[in-house]
Amino acid sequence: MELLTEPRSQVPYDHICRLLHVSEHTLKAIEKAESLSIADRKQRLLDKALRIASKAADRVEDQIEGANITQATVAFGVATEKIMLLLGEAGGGVPVNITFCKSTLSCCISGMPS
User: Exposed end of the chain (fewer CB within 10 Å): N or C?
Assistant: First the structure.
């Protein structure tokens, strides 16, 4: 089955058929059967992930009142980013550019405790 996951340009059907002593028709039937089960497994995994995410979101929502400022800030940031992703907006945070000149860096380092 591992050979079926390889790109056809690298491992052609006829090579796999000779190696496994099966016809091309059999090989394509196996590939079709496996691809359906892979799609089913992916769908089940997606469904499970959505259920877990929903439960986790409910729990965060229930406990947000008792969160300290750090926890609330993190929850706000994550929730905001997920909302943007779900709405199809480009997120990825806010770009930060920090420029240091030699004198500023020297000043910062010299003021640090040893």
Answer: C
pLDDT in tens, 82-110: 888 777 776 555 666 667 666 666 666 66
**Lookup result for tokens 């409910």:** 58
In angstroms, the CA 71 to CA 78 distance is 11
Q: What's the CA gap between 24 and 8, in Å, rounded?
A: 13
Would you state the structure tokens that stand for residue 98, as one six-digit string?
A: 């920090």
Mean pLDDT of 1-17: 70
Q: Is the dihedral of CA 30, 31, 37, 38 positive or negative?
A: positive
**Is 0.85 surpassed by the pTM of this model?**
no
DSSP state of 84: H
> Domain residues of the chain, as ranges?
2-110
Q: How far apart are CA 72 and CA 63, in angstroms?
A: 10
